[in-house]
Amino acid sequence: MPISILPSFLVYCYVGAITPGPANLCTLAAALRYGRGSALKQWRGLLTGFFLISMVSVLVTYFLGTLLNEYVGVFSWIGAGYILWMAWHMFRRAGDLSSWDDDQPTFRRGLAIQLTNVKVMVFCLTALASYVLPYSRAFRDLLLVGLFLPFTGPLCNLVWLFAGASLQKLLANHRKAVDTVMALSLALCAVSLVWPH
């Protein structure tokens, strides 16, 4: 990747990582409901999942290259369906503290959220296909960018986690409203994945 497009690549990484998506919203919800310590367990799973997706994206991009672009739309629809399911699940249980006991933030829960997060899949594949492939098809170059990508999303997940932990006491008396807003935000993420630009 030429140094001249590095600023564009970094802006892409930041915007893609900090904007609301399933992992960021689930991180915020976990921190609001359970606090920083419990949410960090889930975050470790998110980090691991992001790393795995990034490495698989490197392999897929290396072997399939630009042929992959035609399937991104299919992944987007599958991901939108999953995100809508998560939104419905959150909305249905809005404000009901007893129903959240089975959803404690865990490493496995974070890993599952991330491994099914189409936003991250599209993010990684787009970064590699748009910022690396036009300039180099070398596995080493794809791998270097692929190793950098897990430092973008999970670091931004931490921003959402600490924001949620900071707001936890303030929003404790408004759980139903917060859960409803989180569910609607997830639904908006799903729509934005498939809505024509």
3D structure, described in words:
- By secondary structure, the protein is mostly helical.
- It has one domain.
- The protein contains nine helices and no strands.
- The chain has helices spanning 6-18, 22-34, 36-64, 72-92, 107-115, 118-131, 139-148, 153-171, 175-194.
- The longest helix is centred in the N-terminal third of the chain and has 29 residues, at 36-64.
- The radius of gyration is 17 Å and the shape is globular.
- It starts with 5 loop residues before the first helix and ends with a helix.
- The mean pLDDT is 79.
> What's the gyration radius in Å?
17 Å
Query: What's the tally of helices?
Result: 9
Largest sheet: none
Estimated helix fraction: over 70%
User: Strand tally, please?
Assistant: 0
Oligomer: single chain
Structurally, the number of domains stands at 1
Class based on secondary structure composition and strand pairing? mainly alpha
Intertermini distance:
27 Å
The percent range for strand residues is under 5%
Order of helices and strands: HHHHHHHHH
Q: Write down the overall geometry.
A: globular
Global mean pLDDT: 79
Low-confidence stretches: none
